[in-house]
């Protein structure tokens, strides 16, 4: 009886659902990782990933050769990235960068990330950009080919229609000839608006703007440093306790500055686009100013910054009077007065007697003309000197002496420089293609 009474009195306080009972929490109670730790983690992963890619490239070069490495460098980089994350993140372990800063990947609610979500993160982070770029390139190439094919078909149809009806309906040819269909217009618009991968990836491309916008959100207090984290819904917690009373560093100022920079770049890009559209519309209109410029271009010819002109009428021999008696007494209209002073060049024509005055022949160039010609040829001369420069010793090659050499990949060096290089490393210094000393060819006058 005593035991039953004791157990009945102690029962309510020892139940699991009592006020002081322990309730296990499925989510981690660690604080969120600070922004500097997340950035250092990805930087450390990028460093070790580049080491792995370099080692895999060296192995590929030794086994398959440099040409195979050049043709498949993107795939080898992709393979190294997949291997790095498969043996770490996919297995539930920390990457080297996460271990370096003491960070751990968790879900949006703080729970441990499932294997399915970890694999989704790897696919979104590494494989998705590679596949999307390939699919986009193939799709853009097919759209351009379809646009070219449909344009050629429409052009052939117009030519056939003009050949049949052009003589009878000469005034109404443009109105009644075959017109592009809605599908043709849609394909043409799509082909015109789709940029190339290079245009998307350059500094002022849309991918750069999107990446800068996502980084701005991270600096302004976000927790997703990569787009793949935001899409999959994973974040990082810190397993190292922070010192008491220490405030986490904030990158909000960088986020504001990045937002201002992004806004200025977008405004400048939009301004350039509108200016380009205005120029295209003006050129399509063909207003009076353009026609006047075209008339001036027909009356004058600009050579080396000067305008030269001649009469549009029948040519007269310079300095020789009309002795045939068949020409008119008055001289033709003088267009040379419209040219700047000193820009008139007398045009020499043979008269009926076949005499040409010495003053009508070409005169010697002046010192100013020689100086101007030297200024114009200076960039070409510097370019030729850079082409004749050996990239190993940075001295000017002397191909006329036979001391230059060319490799199988087409790069030219000094003979002594490339031979010394090949004794240490049997590959081209520029493209890393495998080169043997007995395959180097001497060249002359090139």
UniProtKB/TrEMBL annotation:
Topological type in the membrane: Multi-pass membrane protein
Every RING-type domain range: 390-432
Pfam short name (any one): Pex2_Pex12
Enzyme category, top tier: transferase
SUPFAM superfamilies: RING/U-box (SSF57850)
SMART domains: RING (SM00184)
TM ranges: 119-139
EC number from the UniProt entry: 2.3.2.27
Gene3D superfamilies, alphabetized: Zinc/RING finger domain, C3HC4 (zinc finger)
GO cellular component: peroxisomal membrane
Reactions listed under catalytic activity: S-ubiquitinyl-[E2 ubiquitin-conjugating enzyme]-L-cysteine + [acceptor protein]-L-lysine = [E2 ubiquitin-conjugating enzyme]-L-cysteine + N(6)-ubiquitinyl-[acceptor protein]-L-lysine
Keywords attached to this entry: Membrane, Metal-binding, Peroxisome, Peroxisome biogenesis, Protein transport, Transferase, Transmembrane, Transmembrane helix, Transport, Ubl conjugation pathway, Zinc, Zinc-finger
Compartments, record wording: Peroxisome membrane
Any one GO molecular-function label of the UniProt entry: ubiquitin protein ligase activity
Pathway: Protein modification; protein ubiquitination
Region (Disordered): 1-22, 308-338
Single GO biological process annotation from the record: protein ubiquitination
Top-level taxonomic group: Eukaryota
Main location (coarse class): membrane
Family indicated by similarity: Belongs to the pex2/pex10/pex12 family.
Name by which UniProt lists this protein: RING-type E3 ubiquitin transferase
Organism from which the protein derives: Pseudomicrostroma glucosiphilum
């Amino acid at each position: 009886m005593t035991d039953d009474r004791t157990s009945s009195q102690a029962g309510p306080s020892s139940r699991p659902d009592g006020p002081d009972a322990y309730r296990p929490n499925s989510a981690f109670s660690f604080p969120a990782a600070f922004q500097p730790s997340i950035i250092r983690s990805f930087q450390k992963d990028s460093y070790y990933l580049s080491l792995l890619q370099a080692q895999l490239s060296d192995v590929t070069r030794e086994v398959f050769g440099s040409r195979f490495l050049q043709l498949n460098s993107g795939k080898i980089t992709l393979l190294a990235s997949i291997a790095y994350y498969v043996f770490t993140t996919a297995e539930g372990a920390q990457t080297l960068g996460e271990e370096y800063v003491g960070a751990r990947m968790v879900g949006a609610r703080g729970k441990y990330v499932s294997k399915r979500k970890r694999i989704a993160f790897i696919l979104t982070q590494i494989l998705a950009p590679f596949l999307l770029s390939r699919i986009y390139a193939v799709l853009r190439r097919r759209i351009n080919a379809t646009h070219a094919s449909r344009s050629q078909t429409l052009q052939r149809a117009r030519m056939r229609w003009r050949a049949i009806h052009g003589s009878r309906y000469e005034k109404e040819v443009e109105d009644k000839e075959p017109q592009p269909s809605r599908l043709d217009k849609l394909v043409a618009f799509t082909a015109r608006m789709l940029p190339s991968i290079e245009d998307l990836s350059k500094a002022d491309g849309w991918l750069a703007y999107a990446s800068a916008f996502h980084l701005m959100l991270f600096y302004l207090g976000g927790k997703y440093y990569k787009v793949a984290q935001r899409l999959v819904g994973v974040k990082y917690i810190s397993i190292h306790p922070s010192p008491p009373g220490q405030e986490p560093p904030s990158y909000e100022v960088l986020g504001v500055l990045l937002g201002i920079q992004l806004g200025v770049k977008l405004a400048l890009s939009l301004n350039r686009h509108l200016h380009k559209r205005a120029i295209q519309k003006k050129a399509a209109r063909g207003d009076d100013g353009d026609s006047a410029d075209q008339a001036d271009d027909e009356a004058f010819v600009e050579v080396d910054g000067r305008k030269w002109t001649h009469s549009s009428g029948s040519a007269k021999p310079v300095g020789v009077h009309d002795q045939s008696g068949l020409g008119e007494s008055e001289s033709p209209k003088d267009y040379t007065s419209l040219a700047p002073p000193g820009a008139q060049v007398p045009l020499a024509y043979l008269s009926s007697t076949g005499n040409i005055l010495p003053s009508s022949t070409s005169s010697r160039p002046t010192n100013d003309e020689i100086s101007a010609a030297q200024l114009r040829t200076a960039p070409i001369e510097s370019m030729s000197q850079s082409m004749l420069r050996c990239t190993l010793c940075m001295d000017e090659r002397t191909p006329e002496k036979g001391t230059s050499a060319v490799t199988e990949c087409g790069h030219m060096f000094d003979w002594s420089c490339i031979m010394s290089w090949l004794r240490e490393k049997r590959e081209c210094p520029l493209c890393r293609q495998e080169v043997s000393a007995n395959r180097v060819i001497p060249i002359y006058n090139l």
